[in-house]
Design goal:
Layout (H helix, E strand, L loop, with lengths): L12 H22 L27 H12 L2 E6 L2 E6 L2 H9 L12 H6 L13 H14 L1 H5 L2 H17 L4 H18 L5 H22 L20 H26 L8 H12 L3 H32 L1 H14 L15 H13 L8 E3 L13 E4 L1 H5 L42 H18 E5 L23 E5 L3 H9 L1 H4 L1
Parallel strand pairs: 2-4
Antiparallel strand pairs: 1-2, 3-4, 5-6
Helix pairs in contact: 5-11, 7-8, 7-16, 7-17, 8-9, 8-12, 9-10, 10-12, 11-12, 12-14, 12-16
Length: 508
């Protein structure tokens, strides 16, 4: 799947530039095979391919193909996209040794011309190169999202989780919509602190989702030739769709930031938020306004869809594995009962629920193909400096040495001999090393509280009259073209449940 150049040229110039581009592509690929550095370190084994453009990965769920190659060729493999060699890590121990213990060597990102330059202007923190900008952006994120700071969002997350329960009571056929609304409402409040009208949030979230989908496609190796041949970006008219999407998104993020600036200027209370903190303290981190604009936008945009997908993954697992759901609900009844609504305060008393959530996110990991890292020095596993490296979440989650019977759904693997939840099997839900997602603590709390309230309130079953795609969330984005067919039946009389949810804020 290769995205051809997006040209807009005169009729006379088109044949010349297309010929030049074709010769450049063919010539570069040929040189890859004809010229080899004697000092080049040997790379991990590679599945065979005869395609000049490199290994073929299907556009949907490419992680499954990678997983098959890992099983056949070993914990590390090398694939080719155009002229670029890419190393993929697919086993737990190798990920720990390389991406965690030597994380400093893989803290950089490779040059991603389509996604990192044309589509985001080098301003998205997740894809910035190591250096001054990246350090400044990560510092302010960690300050605002560290565990103690994330604790402050608990009342907000509990309040919106009870709203999600009420939404499901009103419309039990739109889980994905309700999960997305929860994520959008909480993330907007955390990011911008203002009470934004629901209609405005819906419009802005729709625009962000369009951008995320464009971004996702731009990140797939081989989708844009410009990632293998950067000189294509200088051809007139190339990448118009990417540049247009960048300007559109920049305008939206600027409007969102300016709303907070104006409210502060007019002495209107906006409440604590990430943007308010940056506007008041950004100078301490050396942040420019455009950097603050895109930091806030990335927090709002990327976080909302990923959290919603994770929430749906857990609830989908409950519907798909009713016996395991019943064990969790028996624990909820024993610890909480049905006379009061559960809260974060119950977390430590619910090891089975915590184990269920961990297993669900291992069973169907988000961002299953992982994100690209780049080595800055030679690495001990025969990975030379300058190599693009992926930790493949799907393959790692199927490591039989760490997760015996890996394709089975077994929450008990997360329970120790004392019957307590253990994270010794820690799965890399949020990435690796120094590039781990800084919002992981907020995300974990969101997933926990929504799972807790919904599994306490409802019996979940698969709607057998509708198709269920249990691989639908592997990209970490909401698949609105493939609805999640789950039925919700209340475990508590509906009137009592509504009353408890309406009084939930006081309890929280």
């Amino acid at each position: 799947m290769v995205q051809l150049p997006d040209f807009h040229l005169s009729d006379n110039m088109q044949p010349v530039l297309f010929a030049a581009a074709s010769l450049g592509v063919v010539g570069s690929i040929a040189l890859t095979y004809l010229i080899k550095s004697e000092s080049a370190r040997p790379l991990p084994p590679s599945p065979p391919t005869r395609r000049l453009s490199g290994h073929f990965l299907p556009p949907r769920n490419p992680c499954l193909t990678i997983g098959e190659w890992i099983e056949q060729y070993g914990p590390l493999i090398t694939i080719r996209s155009g002229v670029e060699k890419i190393v993929i890590i697919g086993r737990h121990q190798a990920a720990v040794e390389i991406m965690e213990k030597q994380g400093g060597l893989l803290a950089d990102r490779p040059r991603m011309v389509a996604a990192g330059e044309l589509l985001s202007g080098g301003l998205f923190v997740a894809f910035t190169h190591t250096g001054d900008r990246h350090r400044r952006m990560r510092r302010v994120l960690h300050t605002h999202l560290q565990p103690k700071a994330a604790e402050g969002y608990r009342p907000l997350q509990e309040s919106h989780a009870k709203t999600m329960v009420l939404d499901i009571l009103g419309d039990s056929f739109n889980l994905q919509k309700h999960a997305s609304n929860y994520a959008a409402r909480t993330i907007v409040k955390m990011t911008y602190g203002e009470t934004t009208p629901a209609s405005t949030i819906d419009i802005e979230v729709k625009e962000i989702r369009q951008f995320i989908e464009t971004f996702r496609l731009a990140l797939i190796p081989g989708n844009y030739l410009v990632d293998s041949f950067p000189w294509l970006k200088y051809l007139p008219g190339y990448g118009r769709n990417l540049k247009r999407e960048f300007e559109k998104t920049k305008k939206l993020y600027t409007i969102q930031l300016d709303r907070v600036k104006q409210r502060i200027k007019n002495n209107v209370e906006v409440g604590p938020s990430f943007v308010k903190y940056m506007l008041e303290n950004g100078h301490l981190y050396g942040l420019s306004e455009i950097e603050m604009t895109f930091l806030a936008g990335a927090f709002f945009g990327a976080g909302s869809d990923t959290i919603a997908a994770a929430m749906c993954t857990v609830l989908m697992a409950a519907a798909c594995f009713p016996e395991e759901q019943a064990k969790v609900q028996a624990e909820l009844d024993a610890v909480i009962g049905r006379q009061r609504a559960p809260t974060f305060a119950d977390q430590e008393s619910l090891p089975l629920l915590q184990a269920f959530i961990s297993e669900a996110l291992r069973w169907r990991p988000l961002a299953a193909s992982g994100f690209a890292h780049r080595t800055t020095q030679d690495e001990n596993y025969c990975i030379p400096a300058g190599t693009t490296v992926y930790g493949n979440h799907w393959a790692i989650s199927r490591d039989p040495e760490v997760y015996p019977d890996p394709h089975a759904f077994k929450p008990e693997r997360w329970i120790n001999d004392q019957g307590r939840f253990t994270d010794n099997l820690s799965f890399f839900v949020y990435g690796f090393g120094r590039r781990v997602c800084p919002a992981q603590h907020v995300a974990n709390r969101a997933i926990f509280i929504t799972s807790l309230l919904n599994l306490w309130a409802f019996q979940l079953t698969v709607d057998r009259t509708k198709p269920l795609d249990d691989f639908g969330y592997l990209d970490g984005v909401m698949p609105y073209d493939r609805p999640c067919a789950i039925d919700f039946k209340t475990r508590i009389p509906e009137d009592e449940l509504r009353l408890m949810m309406q009084n939930y804020t006081e309890v929280a």
